[in-house]
Every structure is written in C-alpha cells, then in structure tokens.
Amino acid sequence: MRHRISGKQLSRTTPHRRALRRNLASSLIQHGAVRTTPAKAKEVRPFVERLITIAREGTLHARRRVIQLLQDRAIYTYEDSAHDYVAEDRTVVQKLFDEVAPRYADRPGGYTRIVHLPERRIGDGGRQVLLQLVEGPAAQASEGGAAPAQGSRRRRRAARRAEAVAAAGEVQADEAETPAEPEQDAPDADQAEAPEADQDAPDAEAPEADPEETEK
Hints:
Blueprint: H1 14-31, E1 33-36, H2 38-55, H3 60-70, E2 74-79, E3 84-91, H4 92-103, E4 112-117, E5 128-133, H5 137-142, H6 153-177, H7 211-215
Helix pairs in contact: 1-2
C-alpha cells in the first residue's frame, strides 16, 4: 500500500514522518534544544508537549505509553579522554521522567517555544528556528532565576548591552559614594595680611646746646 504524501506532512511518508518526529523529540529531551526548520518544529512541538504531559503522571502506565510513542533510546555523551561518544547509564525516557517532567509539575502547558534564527541554512538557504524547552520553576529556582544565554543573535546582543549598562551604573554609583576632597578657599584680597607698617625712623638727635649760650 502506497502512503499518501501532502504538503502538511512534510513531503514524507507516514513511517518517515513518525521516525523524524521521534528523533527530533528525543534530541530535544536529551539536549534541551534543537535547530531545525519552522515546518519540522511545528510538527514536533505538539508531540513533545503530549509526551511531557503524560510523563507528569509518573506512573508505570505513563512510562509504557511514552515508550510506545517515543521508542526509547540510550543517551550518548562525548568524552575527550576517549575521543568518542560513550553511552550513559540512563535513557531518554528516564531523563524525561526524572528531570524534564518534574520541572513542569506546576505548569499547565506550554513546555516548549520556537525562536526564529537570523542565520539561513547552508546549502539551500532555508529558514532555521530553535525549538527549545522553556525553563520551569524548578530550574529557575536552582539557577537563581537566571535564564540561559541562548537564542538569537539579537537576544544575545541585547543581553550584552544590558550587562554593559548595569556595569556603567555601578561605576557611577561608586564615584558618587567616594567623598570629594574639600577645596581650600583662596584667601580674599581684603583679608590678605597686610605687610607690617614700617616703624617710623627715630628722629635725628638734635645737636647738644652749647652750655655757654645756655648760661646767657
């Protein structure tokens, strides 16, 4: 039986579309964000939302339902010492139930978001988006409420500009708190010490009178 192909199904057969959706969903759960096209992101987003909603139940039945939809796979990480990817002890489903789902325990929905990127895809120049998991209350509390610095170039530039403005404000505040040295007032001209007046020179001694003239 031949599968029907339409524009709404990403021009792929049903098995191919399902495999693509599972792979992107697994990568999103493992890494927290994936770069893809807008059409693929819109196709995968409701699927991931459904998986997280099911995983929030935390029951054995919910785990079996997720494994049926997602097809569990191991998680590999790159190690510099081995120069190769090494399998971890947990799988994608285990990470979904242990880390991702508890993060959104108090969130009714909206676990993912799509950020449009300015860069075009190399080769065909197709548009790219970043499909990522939003930070829940648990992650924000552990990180002190700071969101990760990722996203588009415009967001990163705005974050750097905000940091520069904050740093400039701190420098101005420090300069304002530093007490300025009091300026010494210049002495007024009127109050300037006048030079000591010259003492009057002693009068010249008068010549002594002749005693003979005095007797006369």
